[in-house]
Specification:
Pfam families: BON. By secondary structure, the chain is of the alpha+beta class. It has one domain: Histidine-containing Protein, Chain: A (2-Layer Sandwich), CATH 3.30.1340.30. 59% of the residues lie in helices and 20% in strands. A 3-stranded mixed β-sheet has the order 1-2-3. A hairpin with a 2-residue loop joins β1 (70-76) and β2. α1 runs antiparallel to α2 (33-62).
């Protein structure tokens, strides 16, 4: 049940972002084929990045060590940036490992800081 809900949420998120960026592709006039493809690829990258961010956040919430932490997640072209504060080195390392394990993540930049 949770898996079905997660798939539904991700599908809806992808549809929203795809429709949000789609009008830009049609607004162009007098372009070459390569130019016409640029907005579509950019929109696809944004959808992928948003999906990766959502997956990383979800995995961090599901993990007993990282659940409830003050961790922000940003993704750009498959590179995940973790920032915020954690209480221990194990939480810091776990967050990085969890992010790296998500499909589509090319690199993790860990900017997490330990309290104290």
């Amino acid at each position: 049940m949770k898996s079905n809900l997660r798939v539904l949420k991700m599908s809806m998120l992808a549809a929203i972002f795809t429709s949000a960026f789609n009008p830009a592709a049609y607004a162009q006039t007098d372009t070459t084929e390569a130019d016409a493809m640029t907005p579509k690829l950019s929109a696809e990258n944004n959808v992928d990045d948003n999906a990766i961010t959502a997956k990383v956040k979800g995995e961090l919430m599901r993990n007993a060590i990282t659940n409830g932490l003050d961790v922000q997640v940003e993704t750009s072209q498959g590179q995940v940036i973790l920032s915020g504060t954690v209480n221990s080195e194990i939480q810091l390392q776990s967050a990085e490992q969890i992010a790296a394990s998500v499909a589509g993540v090319k690199k993790v930049v860990n900017k997490l800081e330990r309290k104290g």
